[in-house]
Design a protein that fits this description.
The chain is mainly alpha-helical. The protein contains 21 helices and ten strands. The chain has a two-stranded antiparallel sheet with strand order 1-3.
Length: about 550
């Protein structure tokens, strides 16, 4: 059951302030610091969930990371879902400052400013850090990390800025070191218990998971020039990564006992023992969880005649179907009996997409469209282009629309994912929104981060951690210590659609690896400057003292 009280607090807070304004009113309504925990919770709620409409958003964080990370291909259908091409450009490592899906920088800066406002309000003159302030500082650190990871150099907003005070971008390394210092400073003040009222909010375990992630990527974040990052260089923070993971593991609070697919359904929530830190969503609040819309197939809402479609119920709102699995990435899903394979559409031997019942499990009834069984192809074939003379144009930059054609053949190019499967009733009632919570840090990630750190350190013990993931997935276990490539491949199977693939590929030095035909379409695909995204035009216009990231 979802935590309704959490949303009541958030809703009250959101009534007073927009979460997308960069210029946040910093005047407090209070003449003294409210000591009532309920009042403090109301003040903090808008800070804790300032990223709710960013993280699981196809048009913002999730879509950007999935396309840039080579998990998904942003296909279009004779112009349908081209939408200015920003998703296609992300797929091709060609994002631009005006693109919608890079334009969440201001959302995070707004969240940081809200945190600073409430931190100032709740802080005491004696300098003692309360639990509420510790949580606010931890989520503020997390917001900074999202900017550091995506955009490189980032403003270090550790206080409320006065009118006219110039905001500058600090070096990525400096902000990373500050984030680590902040998290360690507040660590012992953060909640350690798991309950409905701590779900989706910063805890000790959230802070440790973020530290582990930073330590594992330490050389990426501190190398200065991202093009010089060397994946083979020794990482001095591997021991710290292992220690942070061990703190979470030794707590005994988390495990992998929940069914893999069930973790991501609209019925997920605070009861999932794998979730360390997640963004809660409820359909009725229409707060941004619409991934199921884009991860189905283009006509999955009905059978072409208004009857039941993919979900055995006609959807009154159309679906997008414009996120197709990259054929190279699809090759990872080859393990026998792997429960994670059940989070894909079209990967059955016959390619048929079967209907799904009210229990979110596949039936033996084929999905049809206008009387024809729907079959998805693992490969993606783009619609051929011709020149004025009618001759076919060779594959290259002209194919940057990633157009498959607006017909049955085009709509069924590429497997689709159902990891965040929609609830058809919610989808129809609440403007395509559903109630799937979006995990950011999971226990499974902690186990694989520790395994990777052990392998990179030349130590044993990674096999047992690796096999815990395989046991949860109900697939074959390995009989020897995993290689780094084994770990990267397993991370792809385990965390697809969760926004981590780009982060992983950069760390492993494989972000520029030839992916499907993308480097043929964009000859600049392997430009290492594209490991970070451009700062959005609106943010640059508001901060004329900033310089745009190289190659943009």
């Amino acid at each position: 059951m979802k935590n309704k009280l959490l949303y009541i607090g958030a809703s009250i807070a959101f009534m007073f302030c927009s979460c997308t304004d960069l210029d946040v009113d910093i005047k407090s309504e209070y003449t003294q610091i409210p000591g009532n925990p309920i009042a403090q919770e109301g003040l903090a709620a808008e800070c804790f969930f300032a990223h709710r409409n960013v993280m699981a958003n196809y048009y913002k964080y999730n879509g950007l990371m999935s396309f840039a990370g080579g998990e998904q291909v942003a296909v279009s259908f004779d112009g349908d879902y081209y939408d200015g091409g920003y998703s296609q450009r992300a797929t091709l490592h060609a994002s631009a400052p005006d693109d919608n899906n890079v334009d969440w920088f201001a959302d995070m800066m707004s969240g940081i400013t809200k945190c600073n406002k409430v931190i100032q309000t709740l802080s005491t003159d004696d300098g003692e850090i309360s639990q509420a302030v510790a949580q606010l500082r931890a989520v503020r650190a997390f917001f900074h990390w999202t900017l550091v990871d995506a955009y490189g150099d980032t403003p270090l907003l550790d206080h409320l800025y006065d009118d006219g005070e110039e905001i500058t971008r600090s070096p990525r390394k400096e902000v990373t070191e500050w984030i680590v210092s902040e998290l360690n400073t507040v660590m012992d003040k953060l909640p350690t218990t798991l309950a409905a009222n701590t779900y989706g909010k910063p805890t000790r375990w959230m802070a440790q998971a973020l530290l582990a992630k930073i330590y594992l990527n330490w050389n990426v974040y501190t190398c200065g020039d991202i093009t010089t990052y060397d994946e083979n260089a020794a990482n001095p923070k591997l021991g710290d990564c292992i220690a942070a993971c061990d703190d979470i593991i030794n707590s005994g609070l988390f495990d992998l006992s929940d069914d893999y697919k069930a973790k991501f359904l609209p019925t997920n929530g605070s009861h999932i023992k794998d979730f360390i830190y997640a963004v809660p969503h409820t359909a009725e609040n229409k707060d941004g969880m619409v991934l199921g819309r884009f991860h189905t197939w283009r006509r999955g809402q009905n059978d072409g005649n208004g009857g039941a479609g993919l979900y055995n119920a006609a959807l009154t709102n159309s679906v997008g179907g414009c996120s197709a699995m990259n054929p190279d990435f699809a090759e990872l899903f080859n393990l026998p009996g792997d429960r994670r394979n059940d989070c894909l559409y079209g990967n059955d031997e016959d390619g048929v997409v079967y209907q799904y019942g009210s229990n979110y499990e596949k039936t033996d009834i084929p999905t049809t469209y206008k009387g024809e069984d729907v079959k998805l192809t693992k490969s993606i074939t783009l619609k051929a282009l011709t020149n004025d003379a009618g001759a076919e144009i060779a594959m290259g930059p002209a194919y940057d629309h990633l157009d498959c054609g607006a017909n049955m053949t085009g709509w069924t190019q590429g497997w689709r994912t159902n990891k965040f499967m929609l609830n058809p009733t919610e989808y129809n009632l609440y403007g395509r929104n559903t109630g799937n919570d979006y995990p950011i840090f999971r226990f499974a990630d902690v186990l694989l981060m520790k395994a990777e750190a052990l392998v990179r350190s030349g130590k044993g013990g990674a096999m047992d951690l690796f096999n815990k993931i395989r046991q949860c997935a109900k697939t074959v276990e390995i009989a020897a210590e995993p290689t780094l490539q084994d770990i990267l491949d397993e991370r792809g199977r385990e965390f697809f659609d969760e926004g981590w693939r780009r982060n992983d590929l950069i760390r492993f030095g494989q972000y520029e690896k030839n992916s499907w035909i993308l480097s043929t379409i964009n000859p600049d695909f392997a430009n290492k400057n594209k490991r970070i995204f451009p700062v959005p035009t609106g943010v640059m216009n508001s901060n004329t003292n900033w310089k745009q990231n190289p190659s943009y």
